[in-house]
Amino acid sequence: MTLDQAVEPLGIDPILDNPRTRIVVCCGSGGVGKTTTAAALGVRAAERGRKVVVLTIDPARRLAQSMGIDELDNVPRRVPGIDGSAGGELHAMMLDMKRTFDEIVEAHADKERARAILENPFYQSLSAGFAGTQEYMAMEKLGQLRARDEWDLIVVDTPPSRSALDFLDAPVRLGSFLDGKFIKVLMAPAKIGGRAGMKFLGVGMSVMSGPLNKLMGAQLLRDVQTFVAAMDTMFGGFRTRADATYRLLQAPGTAFLVVAAPERDALREAAYFVERLAAERMPLAGLVLNRVHGSGAARLTAERALAAAEALTSGTSEYTENLDGSGIVDRGSGQAGSRTADDPGIVTPTDTSSPESGFPQPASSGATTSDATAESAETSARLAAGLLRLHAERMRVLAREQRTRDRFTALHPEVPVAEVAALPGDVHDLAGLRAIGDRLAVQADDRAEETHGPTEGHDGTEGHGRTEEADATNPEPRMSPSA
């Protein structure tokens, strides 16, 4: 499958090379290759001179293995094996949701209050599995990394979730939880303070204790109350940091890459996400389409391949003995015979197998050779027919992927697209990640050569190197139009 001329190719290198690009966010539905894409972008950017950290939320160990690291955790670790000749380096880390939450508590509460919060059973449940906590903590960690200013590029692999919108919705959901009426009721005693607060709490809890105890259990209710009282001074900080990170994602230095596969559900969600990014005024760089199938014989259609396969299989027993290249072989059941004088149009069958018939008799060794040749030709024909059927199936897959992609580009013609060919196996090392990065980057260069001819590299030779002119013509990631 190839990109139409009307679809703008996605230029990856101008995004990665631009020093104003500080954050690249890979987002999309689960199972489309976000983690691999993020890692490949990190490797390519580092080997082109950027100091990069890749933040992944995928709990699988594939990323660590492909980068040659025994284990990833909540601390950025340098990736060995990166070509640092351009001055770049690569670090990688995997989000530890609970540890990130603990770090926030420890950083924004005094020692005694932090201990009370960390030991609270409700907090332990909240930090480990509350809906939206993982997505919110990913944004918190992104804010922390950006504030440290140790890396000039942060590549974020968004959490695997059923909905690609969870990453953007997490701060709003957590804010709604903290601003909810139930939390406000539990926070009221702490805000009043002293005996008045305890008296208010006693009156309020006496009214609510019956229903809430039945709903939550007495012990859980006390845990929630203790947690809210301890977290009171921190709630505002959560909202402030969430808002700040959200604004950071809207800044021109951020580039969103929507990652998808050429499948109907994945591209439908990708289209929805593109529209959401536009509505939130977040800078969309383009679409990365992974696992795209191709064929080296695309001119042979599925219909012609099936017709050829059918011709081979249906004619195998009748014609394969004529495929050995030694000439046409007369068949014993052919029209050999003699015509009578009374009716020259009637053919009288003649036994050609006997010496008395006057027909040449093949030698026994020659017959054996002919049979072996015919059997070999029949086997070859069947093998060729099977390959033709496989090719027909591949062409059907290509056509289906093309139709699916065309529906997306018809809805969003303004979105640049990069296609990554399907690989025969999983990416498990730096060489594989480099190959993915090369495939991502080469498409825009190929299209430029088709349109304008080879470009002049930064060393004065023909190539696809970064140039100052390229940076000047593409200074910022593409901003998608507002909805």
TrEMBL record:
Biased composition (Basic and acidic residues): 444-469
Membrane-spanning ranges: none
Pfam families for this protein: ArsA_ATPase
Feature: compositional bias, Low complexity: 363-378
Disordered: annotated span: 322-378, 444-483
InterPro entries hit by this protein: ArsA/GET3_ATPase-like, ATPase_ArsA/GET3, P-loop_NTPase
Domain of life where this protein originates: Bacteria
Gene3D superfamilies, per database record: P-loop containing nucleotide triphosphate hydrolases
Residue span, ArsA/GET3 Anion-transporting ATPase-like domain: 21-292
Protein name (Swiss-Prot/TrEMBL): ArsA family ATPase
Organism field: Streptomyces griseocarneus
